User: Fold Alpha/beta fold hydrolase from Thermophilibacter gallinarum.
Amino acid sequence: MEADKKKESRGVRFFSYFEGRRTREGVPTPHLMEELNAPKRDVPLWSKAFAPLGFALVMVAMGVGCFFLGSPAVGVLFCLFGLAPAIAVVVLVCRALPQVLGPRRDASGEELGPYLGGGGDQRVRDMCPGLFDQEREKIEWNRADEAHRTWEWIQALPCPVERVECASDDGTRLVGRAIACNPDSDRWLVFAHGYNDTWRAGLTYARRYAELGFNLLLVDLRAHGESDGAWVGAGWLDRRDLVAWCRWVADRAGEGARVTLAGISMGAAAAILACGEEDLPGQVRACVADSAYDDFWNTAVGVVSSGSLGTPPMPAHPIVDLARLLLRLRRGGYDIAKVSPAEAIARSAAPVLLLQGEDDKVVPAHMADALSAAAGGAAEGEGHELVKIPSAGHCCAVFADPDRYWEAVGAFVGRWA
Assistant:
């Protein structure tokens, strides 16, 4: 009996070690098994950007050595083998950089935007790979239903869709659409779309926010739609643009305005980054971030290596590293390794609601966990919350389970905004 008790005690201690929560400076840490299974983070190093150059120099040096040793043919082969791949990679990145991060203009002609418009069914399929047929059918049905309801809502609007402009800190001209659909309300929503979209992406959410009593400002992020800008901001440049838009709303609606920042994907990351800015107007009461990445560098590495946005899978290094270097050297460029919403959310003055599809292949669900942990954990500290929606791909949680999605949003903005 005594031996059995000792075995049981050792078993309890063993189980507690693996399943219990340890604490570090009073903050709960994840389970040990979660730590062991956590995805590896890629660390940006400038040395990786010069890897092709180093390879070329080594091969050329060997080629020169062969010349001195009386083997010119071998020397030529070494030089070609060293220079050709390095030049090819640099040319590839130089050509791809403006195509990927250069200005994105809307040429789709979709009046209801990329999700609710006629091509929305294909967009949703692209964003939700790997789902069962029943899950996909549910998403498509909800998407089509929202498209119908949104079209009817637009037709019945008591106000025009007003084209508005403002300027960012660096003088970049920004364009958006204001819809003062609740003129007696002091609630305003500033909505930021995702990569390669325009203000029309916000129409997916506009009707529901209007029903919650919000007036709407749907913006074109810089280098998208009608907004100026040499480069897509990846959230980093856009954070200052959103601060400018919030000032615009505060000037229009007055000191009593209650502003909610919202966005999807890159726009969600930009909204979180804006909430970390010291000069964000005090009228900003809340932030709703759908499918936000915790840092852009690892997102870019994941997208390039997996081809999750429809591009062929390619080795992330040195492609992403060279892109980082070349973008830094271009006029109006910036360092993509600095884009870290996880750092910004820790100093956000406004509570943040994180919404995340559990089956997101573009921005994996573990990034939402990282953002939540950086903010103090779900529903802890400053009112931050994390809501995960099953059977939902990138930016498709709103279609996978609209009842749960809007219940969470309504409760959150009702509490804080």
